[in-house]
């Protein structure tokens, strides 16, 4: 599968796909329904998304909101059968395009689409002027068909949505997020050097900053971890927060992998959030904190075993 960072100057082999068009952050059940609608006999399946997401362009000071980084999103799209992913660069040029210009310049002249599938609530063009009906009309005039996917009902009869997944993570409900994603939410990043205080108290942690990934509720989680995208997922406990007992700092995901003793600084770490155990607390002393950490480990093991 090829990932294309633009819609211009594509090789002929990259044109003519039946394309699922949208943001696809999280690739939840609603997104998968749009992708399924783009699967047509005899047509190559492509995914067209925006990079950066329009929200990041229009609201750069928003808190982190990405459910997945682009590489993980693209890997998930590969699993679902995409033959090509088109990361449409969302710049001032694209933001200023009318709905007609977007269809003509990006979809028709650039990607040469044979068919486009979108969700019922898809909006596009300057000021969100175009909707799915307008896309269908413009597609007919430019020579491509359009499929519009209606609302997909998810957990508790609510629409499966990226917003719902974000709300669940922010509320400390990783299991609810997993039900909408179809799998546990994964935070990932490169293991960084920290203060190494955990090693001195018997809890060496692998630390990653989440950066542009959404920040889940601060607190302690039962998790599973994997290194460099290889091997088995290992049971672990993790804290995401500012460590108020030992000194407040930027939020950090600190993961203690059970029965593990390797130097993994600089390695790529993936952490699945399974259960929220408790909020982050400020303890009277480090000794009190260590006693609670021991209890957290046992609690995490029990949840993961169950």
Describe this structure in words.
The strands form 2 sheets. Strands 1-4-3-2-5-6 form a 6-stranded parallel beta sheet, with helices on both faces. A 6-stranded antiparallel beta sheet has the order 7-12-9-10-11-8. It has 306 residues and is an alpha/beta fold. The protein folds into 2 domains: 2-152, Rossmann fold (3-Layer(aba) Sandwich); 159-305, Riboflavin kinase-like (Elongation Factor Tu (Ef-tu), domain 3), CATH 2.40.30. Helix 7 (162-170) packs antiparallel against helix 8. The chain starts with a strand and ends with a helix. The protein has helices at residues 29-37, 54-58, 70-79, 92-95, 99-111, 132-142, 162-170, 174-181, 197-200, 286-305; strands at 2-4, 18-21, 45-51, 84-89, 115-119, 145-149, 186-190, 206-208, 219-227, 230-241, 252-257, 268-278. The longest helix is centred in the last third of the chain and has 20 residues, at 286-305. The model has no long low-confidence stretch (mean pLDDT 92). It is 30% helix and 25% strand. It contains 10 helices and 12 strands.
SSE diagram, text form:
Blueprint (H helix, E strand, L loop, with lengths): L1 E3 L13 E4 L7 H9 L7 E7 L2 H5 L11 H10 L4 E6 L2 H4 L3 H13 L3 E5 L12 H11 L2 E5 L12 H9 L3 H8 L4 E5 L6 H4 L5 E3 L10 E9 L2 E12 L10 E6 L10 E11 L7 H20 L1
Parallel strand pairs: 1-4, 2-3, 2-5, 3-4, 5-6
Antiparallel strand pairs: 7-12, 8-11, 9-10, 9-12, 10-11
Helix pairs in contact: 5-6, 7-8
């Amino acid at each position: 599968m090829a990932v294309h960072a633009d819609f211009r100057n594509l090789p002929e082999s990259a044109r003519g796909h039946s394309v699922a068009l949208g943001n696809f952050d999280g690739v939840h059940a609603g997104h998968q329904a749009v992708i399924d609608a783009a699967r047509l006999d005899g047509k190559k399946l492509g995914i067209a998304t925006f990079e950066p997401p329009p929200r990041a362009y229009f609201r750069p000071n928003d808190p982190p909101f990405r459910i997945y980084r682009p590489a993980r999103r693209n890997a998930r799209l590969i699993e679902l059968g995409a033959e090509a992913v088109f990361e449409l660069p969302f710049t001032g040029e694209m933001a200023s395009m009318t709905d007609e210009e977007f269809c003509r310049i990006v979809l028709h002249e650039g990607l040469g689409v044979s068919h486009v599938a979108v969700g019922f609530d898809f909006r596009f063009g300057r000021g969100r002027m175009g909707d799915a009906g307008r896309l269908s009309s413009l597609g007919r005039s430019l020579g491509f068909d359009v499929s519009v996917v209606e609302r997909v009902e998810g957990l508790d009869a609510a629409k499966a949505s990226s917003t719902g997944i974000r709300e669940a993570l922010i509320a400390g409900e990783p299991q609810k997020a997993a039900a909408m994603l179809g799998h546990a939410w994964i935070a990932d990043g490169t293991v960084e050097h920290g203060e190494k205080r955990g090693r001195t108290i018997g809890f060496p942690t692998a630390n990653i900053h989440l950066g542009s990934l959404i920040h889940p509720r601060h607190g302690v989680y039962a998790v599973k971890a994997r290194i460099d995208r290889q091997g088995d997922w290992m049971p672990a406990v993790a804290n995401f927060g500012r460590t108020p007992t030992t000194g407040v700092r930027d939020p950090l995901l600190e993961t203690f992998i059970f029965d593990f003793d390797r130097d993994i600084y600089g390695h790529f770490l993936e952490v699945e959030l399974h259960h929220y155990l408790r909020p982050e607390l400020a303890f009277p002393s480090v000794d009190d904190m260590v006693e609670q950490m021991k209890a957290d480990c046992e609690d995490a093991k029990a949840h993961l075993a169950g």
